[in-house]
């Protein structure tokens, strides 16, 4: 009986246990059903509520090389510290990290502004900041008549200098770091400090666990091994603090740039930004709803920017710059040269448009010390223009021939032109005789050009009588000159090229001045394009400063394959008969190689058979010291265009020396510079040919000798 009773008790307890388990499971199943059926979609959306945030990491920019593969612009690596803010990071958390980091590195505080100090003071002294607001103002705030911004503005306004003086040097350093933290975007690395010392780099690396968001990395800066040579043309880039230029912000953002990306600021760096910037590495950060990074996925590896191979010959460029410097200094020692402060030289292949040299120098007074120093001003070849004088007479002759104002057999006797109630207009010296257009170019007859201009303007010249011309003759001349590149942009692959200035008045005497290059203004690059057009037989070639684009080689020890080659571009063909152009070429040859030519004294002995045209223009000084005078002082501009050899041109040249001297006579720096420059070009060419011949004749040492 006892055994049966005990068995019944055990069975009852087991049944009770099973029943309890059954009820628990039933409740669990019921609960799971409710969760899945009723709230399932809501919970699923909550669980899947993550964000895929793609972050672009910058890469080094492309390099620049000259035509001989000499490095002109490079990248230099430096250790750097970055901060990446998570989406949910609070201001207090960033401040704590900034305080820790400030103990490990030195951060310059020059960039800290007064507003930054006030913001930081409020952040560090919240109770004292509240006391800056009166009870009445707090009441208005509670009544929503003042909002948070209004309260904060009042606090900022009432922070005193005494309050800010309480910030220590350590506080300012923390603030400088915090300022960098706060300027970045969520999940985007922000450079906190560049050029980190080895000690700082090691200290930060060892404490990264205590510095959430902070990392050590490699940053890249632009390096110019041959600086300052050509520096104004190479341009510059923005720094990481400046980021994208405000005026181009929308453009860059639409092209997947980040706001703190460094981009080309000017000239070549700007013109070829799309090429040099490279393909940034793309990393996808997968975050939860709180902004915590759950996973990171590399979408694409970055590639540094493509490389540019320029048309510039840096050996020649450096040599020409030295010549300009030396001759400027010599010329400044001559009398009446107080305004002389610059000179320019352009060397160009007349058949391809490749610019071998684009040199310019300017004497500038330091604003602080008052000491004068020589600065690079290569940019002045496209950004400044001048009256150039007789150098343009080749275009005047061809305009006359093309319009029928003169024919190849036309001659004029060189006697002064006298128009009623005006000063006589004559050539630079008397007794030049009766001239055809070739000899008129040789001796630089102004009178021949005056008579040509009168005929173009359909005027009738009578001694000491009024002269009437058709004002449309100005358009005829300017349209004709434009065919050579004078008075219009040359099309060079650089931004902000100027076209020069055109005179407004259209009086008869001014048309005569135009014909001898003493009215409209032209850039040195336009002169180079003009003389190249004559040298090559009438094709206006687009000047090119970039020769090739090449793929980058990541080991930085070599140069990659060609992506794009820039072929010569003929912008237009001059409307002139070939024999007319050949006649102007002969006139230019006589200028430099025949006794009596205006440049014979400088170039008559040259073995490379040059041709060209000198220019001297009466002008008015309009340089940096113009504000010191009530009226612009009169000066002389000197110019020179040329090419060589005359019968097979391989190099075209333009020289410009503005504001060379005051008075009617002075130095001839244009011819001196031109002769030295062409000599240097052919000397370098000969030296390279000799070196190449010697290298080709040197036995190879690659293999071992058969005999010991």
UniProtKB/TrEMBL annotation:
Q: Which domain of life is it from?
A: Bacteria
Q: Name one GO molecular function term.
A: serine-type D-Ala-D-Ala carboxypeptidase activity
One GO cellular component this record assigns the protein to is:
plasma membrane
**Which Pfam families does the annotation name?**
PBP_dimer (PF03717), Transpeptidase (PF00905)
Task: Using the record's annotation, list all stretches that form the Penicillin-binding protein transpeptidase domain.
Answer: 344-672
**SUPFAM superfamilies linked:** beta-lactamase/transpeptidase-like, Penicillin binding protein dimerisation domain
Report the residue ranges that make up the Penicillin-binding protein dimerisation domain in this protein.
Answer: 58-296
Annotated EC: 3.4.16.4
User: What are the protein's UniProt keywords?
Assistant: Cell cycle, Cell division, Cell membrane, Cell shape, Cell wall biogenesis/degradation, Membrane, Peptidoglycan synthesis, Transmembrane, Transmembrane helix
A single Gene Ontology biological process assigned to it is: cell division
Q: What segment(s) does the record annotate as region Disordered? A: 686-708
Bilayer-crossing residues are: 12-39
Q: Tell me what topology the record assigns in the membrane.
A: Single-pass membrane protein
Metabolic or biological pathway, per its Swiss-Prot or TrEMBL entry: Cell wall biogenesis; peptidoglycan biosynthesis
Compartment(s) of residence = Cell membrane; Membrane
> What does the similarity note say?
Belongs to the transpeptidase family.
The protein's name is serine-type D-Ala-D-Ala carboxypeptidase
Organism whose genome encodes this protein: Mesobacillus persicus
